[in-house]
Design a protein that fits this description.
With 722 residues, this protein is of the alpha/beta class. It contains 27 helices and 17 strands.
């Protein structure tokens, strides 16, 4: 009851910030927002401490990934650390298990509080978060955590009172930096509940080191997140002028048997690249920090490409740039300086693994061999050609990508727009495999899977979870619901091929009228590359096997679906609907990777973590980045003189099919979707027919609306099926 009105105040304040304001009003409102969020943080701390005092705080017990906890903490403080000019490094020492059993939420609360304090009191240098192995036995492990900084430090005489509630090390700090003095008291109590103790070593002017130990059980499922997703070891050169960050990256890579050499400057890196080439052991992976003195990462990449062209060195197989959250970080590359990927700092094992795995799973984009690559995958999947696939996905853009990629593999695809429709189609149809999105309206993927498993047809049917949240908890929830495997978005053609071959038995006796063209007769598709400001289209289109026309279609679909996302998010927050807000941001996060919007994906991920905590501090930045992406995509249409009629028709076909599913399922059509339909049909169908259809939908006369919809489709395209 305390949080609810505070969330309303914060939500309404965010809505007001999106209106026309003069400079004085905006200044007052900004201050009001800061004060409101500060008050909500204090209330949350008091409520937590009250629970602890009353003995009502209980720890959860579930398997979780340490790397994911460290990754989320890194995401949460990446921007604020960068703004302070501080390097944030997280490190899990070799031998420390990734999978453990305990309360991940409370462990994250401890780490977030300590890292938040470190960022607050550190204006230069670095913050280092590490976890090392302590005592262990058959049932569990003791893990020793430390959070060190190079901040202002604490006087030894004040340390004893530091963990007492409502106590500050220095009264002046409260005025300068804020805080109630409850955070460390809560952390100390939580650590004690986990069987450990929180302590600190510090001296004024040199920084602080907070130590704590927690006792955790061994995971019930001794599995590795990298099972069946092993990285191929590579000869690697890592370049960074920050010693601690470089050592952390080296330790992570050596843990996967990579052969790693390091350089602290671009000049040193060039010499090492030349030496490796001369020895006949060229570098396979080059990791380059963006910000370095004398020669930065972009200039180093340009020099490497130049030396390669002149035959001085053998080109590195993959080039990855390491970049922080600075507003000035590179978004466009020219003159041969584009890396194969950009990895956000702070560097974590989880982030490195996901980036390198994505790079290793795709071949370098080469237009000349694009046709042969598709033909090769087509031939590989011949045993399952004609297989009937049910794609359960509510988002039009994701539908476009998945349907187009699956079509290249010779399978038939039907679409269900939510879980309830999927259950209905399984009962009526005959499918070989289901791709199931997890977060959907009407009925989510978990509930739909459980319902399908109760049917005779669906009891043994392969169901593959699809989600942008490739976290351990999502995998566990998918498995508990009865799903067979997990596919993280964005996915590639080769990953889809592997899943089809693994889960569908050869269809030797099936005769299907719909088999894709044989490889030798597949038409060559002209590649028409283009660039958009702020988007890494090279990486995105590689996932689509170089299909630039599909890339255009996906961008247009994303623009149509999410051009009003900022206002929709604001509406959800103003009513305190954090579930809807998180669902929207989660969807955009997943799609951002599909369209190469790296910064939008990063801020969406950051905002998603905040929304889980009923906070939305990153929304203004999210709005700015989303607006920039929308402007860039809009410029593509203007340069092209409008999108091709084929692309437009495909998008309309999907939109009308989705509307039909809502009407047939007797599900309320969201107001935002009705407006998108109005905008899409404007100028293509008589206004009178559009208004008639929308009026019928608004009055829930769905039987009549279906008749009107069929007429709309007929006028759009005689062969369009609705």
């Amino acid at each position: 009851e305390i949080r609810t009105p505070m969330n309303a105040v914060i939500g309404l304040g965010q809505l007001l910030l999106d209106t026309e304001l003069n400079s004085t009003q905006r200044e007052y409102l900004d201050t009001l927002q800061i004060a409101s969020k500060s008050l909500l943080g204090i209330l949350n701390a008091i409520l937590d401490y009250s629970k602890i005092e009353a003995g009502c705080m209980e720890l959860e017990l579930a398997d979780f990934s340490l790397d994911e906890v460290l990754e989320n903490t890194a995401k949460l403080f990446a921007r604020s650390a960068a703004e302070h000019g501080v390097a944030l490094v997280t490190e899990r020492s070799p031998g420390v298990p990734d999978l453990v059993r305990g309360d991940s939420v409370r462990l994250a609360q401890i780490l977030n509080n300590l890292v938040g304090n470190a960022v607050k009191f550190t204006d230069e240098g670095e913050i280092h978060v590490s976890v090392e192995m302590g005592e262990q036995n058959n049932s569990g492990v003791a893990l020793n955590f430390s959070v060190s900084d190079t901040g202002i430090g604490i006087d030894p005489g004040q340390i004893e009172a530091l963990f007492q509630p409502f106590t500050q090390a220095d009264g002046s700090i409260t005025r300068t930096h804020g805080g109630t003095g409850l955070g460390l008291a809560i952390c100390a109590s939580l650590v004690e509940m986990m069987g450990g103790e929180l302590s600190v070593e510090s001296e004024p002017g040199t920084g602080s080191v907070f130590h704590f130990t927690v006792h955790l059980s061994r995971a019930l499922k001794e599995i590795d997140l990298q099972t069946n997703r092993r990285l191929k070891a590579m000869r690697t050169l890592a370049v960074d002028d920050n010693r601690m960050a470089l050592e952390n990256l080296e330790n992570i890579l050596r843990g996967w048997d990579f052969v790693v050499t390091t350089a602290s400057s671009a000049e040193q890196a060039l010499k090492m690249l030349k030496q490796a080439s001369d020895r006949g052991q060229p570098i396979e992976l080059l990791l380059v920090d963006w910000r370095m003195p004398e020669m930065n990462g972009i200039e180093l990449i340009r020099r490497v490409r130049e030396w390669t062209e002149h035959g001085q060195i053998v080109a590195p197989g993959r080039v990855v740039m390491l970049a922080d959250h600075s507003r000035n970080r590179p978004s466009q590359f020219a003159g041969g300086t584009r890396p194969d990927a950009i990895m956000e700092k702070p560097i974590t094992a989880f982030r490195v693994f996901e980036t390198l795995l994505a790079l290793q799973q795709r071949a370098p984009f080469q237009p000349a061999s694009e046709h042969s690559r598709i033909a090769e995958l087509f031939e590989l999947t011949r045993p399952v050609h004609g297989a009937r696939i049910l794609l359960v996905e509510d988002n039009l853009t994701n539908q476009l990508v998945a349907k187009q990629l699956l079509a290249k593999l010779g399978v038939q695809v039907q679409v269900a727009h939510h879980g309830r429709e999927a259950v209905h189609k399984v009962n009526l149809g005959d499918f070989d495999l289901i791709f199931m999105d997890l977060q959907m309206p009407v009925m989510d993927g978990f509930e739909a899977t459980r319902a399908i498993r109760e049917t005779a047809k669906g009891r043994d049917m392969p169901i593959i979870a699809m989600t942008a949240a490739a976290m351990l908890k999502d995998r566990e929830a998918s498995e508990a619901a009865g799903m067979n495997a997990h596919l993280a978005k964005p996915f590639e053609l080769s990953q889809l091929a592997e899943i089809l071959l693994e889960w569908i038995p050869p269809l030797v006796d099936r005769k299907s009228p719909m088999i894709a063209a044989a490889p030798d007769s597949m038409p060559e598709r002209p590649s028409q590359p283009f660039e958009l400001a702020g988007l890494d289209l090279g990486t995105a289109v590689a996932r689509m096997d170089g299909d630039w026309e599909l890339m255009r279609t996906v961008l247009r679909s994303f623009h149509n679906d999410f051009n009003d996302a900022s206002s929709r998010l604001g509406d959800a927050l103003s009513t305190g609907d954090y579930v809807a807000a998180r669902c929207l941001v989660h969807t955009i996060k997943g799609l951002s990777n599909s369209i190469g919007a790296v910064e939008l994906g990063a801020v969406s991920s950051e905002l998603e973590v905040e929304l889980d905590r009923r906070n939305s501090a990153s929304k203004p930045r999210f709005d700015r980045v989303l607006a920039a992406v929308m402007a860039a995509v809009g410029s593509l249409d203007r340069r092209r003189g409008g999108v091709s009629s084929e692309t437009d028709t495909n998008a309309l076909q999907i939109q009308m099919t989705e509307l039909k599913a809502y009407l047939e399922s007797a599900v309320i059509v969201p107001l935002a979707q009705r407006e998108r339909i109005r905008n899409s049909l404007d100028g293509k169908v008589d206004d009178e027919l559009i208004e008639k259809l929308l009026d019928q939908i608004g009055q829930l006369r769905y039987a009549e609306a279906l008749i009107s919809l069929r007429e709309v489709c007929r006028r759009l395209e005689p062969d369009m099926t609705c």
